[in-house]
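Entry 14. Ran structure prediction on the chain below.
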Amino acid sequence: MKNSVFDIKRPHFPVLVTLVSIIVVGLIGIPFGDSRFIVYAIFLELVYVSLAILVAKGYRKPLYVCILIAIIIIVGNSFVSAHINRIMTLSRPLNTMVLIVGGYLLQGLLVYTSAMALRISNKSKSGTQ
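Output, structure tokens:
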């Protein structure tokens, strides 16, 4: 099973696991979100699925896209007053948990795992360890 998508020793594997986690949390959260934004939510899910496929194939450039999108999501969530209010009041607990887990924790983890995969990939590419 050499060079398998599910090879834990590959530097891209933690990124793939994080992306799949974001997809699952997103699928859970879509029905609880605002129906006005369902098209954007589905589009974002498709972006994450596409990134997961590209990362699973071992491409490096999608890792940069993962970092960029995750930062945009974190910053965007931080400036939406409805999100801030929901987090501060816990008015809709399930929606709030999905927001915190999917919009902050997993996005932060995506930045970290993508950066680490790039770092490991660059080290192995240059031949230094």
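The two ends are 25 Å apart (CA to CA). Will compare against last week's run tomorrow.
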